[in-house]
């Protein structure tokens, strides 16, 4: 049986679209593009659309009856890399993305044997799509929250696509992904896989 250091890295992509499956979602397409690049670096990937689950409001790991967050939480705990893929709505991450981060906030009080929040050592990538400006702000909002929770970010840890203002084209409807976007996605995935491998071999120090 392979040791922990020998097993493949794995990633979970949480798609924060407001559209339930099987509706077409640009955020889901973007998540798949990130995962496609991660697989090129021997990272096993899985994609989950959060709106398909009952994620109750709150900041606890388990909010009780009817809450399906615990099963999502376990998949995040089992992963080395978290891909958070969100659309832009009214200039902000989707309400689903915000709820995911609120639920992850519970992990600040869950620590390992050395006093580290249990998300230490995990790497995050943020992917953003929308038909308006605001991708940098949305990334900043998500990255700040995820980093507070304990996730690490590699260099250039986000990828995004935004259509022209007032136009109705979706990322999922593009005949071809622009070269600048595909290159950015490849860089984000490559750097995330590299950092995740480094952190597996050398976790952050615990409390003194």
TrEMBL record:
Domain NADPH-dependent FMN reductase-like: 12-140
InterPro entries cross-referenced by the UniProt entry: Flavoprotein-like_sf (IPR029039), FMN_Rdtase-like_dom (IPR005025)
GO molecular function: oxidoreductase activity
Coiled-coil residue spans: none
A Pfam family assignment: FMN_red
Entry protein name: Flavodoxin
Organism listed in the record: Mycolicibacterium agri (Mycobacterium agri)
Lineage of the organism: Bacteria, Bacillati, Actinomycetota, Actinomycetes, Mycobacteriales
